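Ticket #4471: structure export looks truncated?
Reporter: QA, pipeline team
Priority: medium

Steps to reproduce: submit the single chain below to the structure queue and open the exported record.
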Amino acid sequence: MEQIITFISNAMAPIISELGGVAVMPVVWLILGLVFGIGWRKSLTSAITVAVGLAGLYLVLGFFLNSITPAATAIAVRFGGEAPLDIIDANWVFCWGVGYQPVTVLAIVAGIGINIVMLLLRLTKTLNIDIFSDFLGQGLAAAVVYAFTENVWLAVGVAVVISAYRLLLADLFYPVVQRYWKIPGVTFSQSGVLEWGLLSWPIAKFLDLFPGLREGRFNEEWVRKHFGIFGETVFLGVIFGALLGILGGLRWTAVVLLAVNLAATLTLMPRMISILMEALIPISEGTRDFMMKRGGSRELYVGMDPAIGTGDRGVLAVALLMVPITVALALILPGNRILPLGDLATLVFTLQFAVAFNKGDILRSLITSIVLVIATLYIATAAGPLVFQAAKYFGMIDAAETATTSCMFIGGQPYWVVLRAMFGTP
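Actual output as written to the record:
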């Protein structure tokens, strides 16, 4: 078994790591186009357009994360520096490193297998092509399980369970993705985003009970109508950037730069999504025609990286507003031990369904997001020691290190409650 794991790791891991989603996904897209019979020309054009769209999207997203992270960290340090919070939020890259292990590659392969089996048995309609992001979900969980048990089969089994329920959630939330983001034939398939749809849904239904909230009127159109020129996207970016910079105590030059950068992000991100849409439509139509010819009325969804959901201005606005709110919650919640730092910028992923289920209403989305963040902080507090001990096991952290390091984004997902119950307190 160790030889198999080593072989798979040596063969696949470097390729996946070096190419990343920008190169891997277009290759898969080309294959899908050929399989679903849209022809070489359309398939190749669509695949290249996907590569261009993803490259642009990741470029703008990276620009956004790099711009907001210093301000978010400054806010956390400025207001949380004296708080007795002993788990450091290093950010998702740290957890990706913990989850990038030989056993993880085997778990990812098993996840691909269970996807194929579930499609053949008609247990799911989602074909997940977001393999690169799988290292952040079931990959990290498999690595942690292996670090505590050294049992390959148990680690892979946990990953397969996560993969299976994630596909079911991708099916469940496909109508929401279509209704809110309007991305043809696409659903989101990444762990760390889907799970919070399960909580966002009942909260949104609960808010429907209250007059004044059920109408969902505090959306982007309402902001533009009532705030005039200051409600336009570019000015909202400037306002958000300036507020975050001031809260972080940044120099005035840094505040100005952050304001301009966030204005650029809110303007450019939707345009990158429009490029991706051009590539998605031919494959979506080809998939529909293929399934109608061979499977009757059966549908097939393509599971993709929810990074494409970050192009929504409502998601970006709520994520930015939640940065200082998340720090405040971390300071006042009894029993919370994690200090949000590196993963504050990734709220743009965590809160996507909070916005979608509330149809872009800013006030409702903020109320829902506060509940989600509270749950995230408590789960990340419970999961932190597990991730930290796994990092020690794999040699990422010195064995003598005592300062607990984890990540709020992936370390705060609901299934970590089960893993913590399995292994107790490390």
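Status: closed, not a bug. The export was complete when the record was re-opened. Leaving a note from the reviewer for reference: DSSP finds 16 helices and six strands in the chain.
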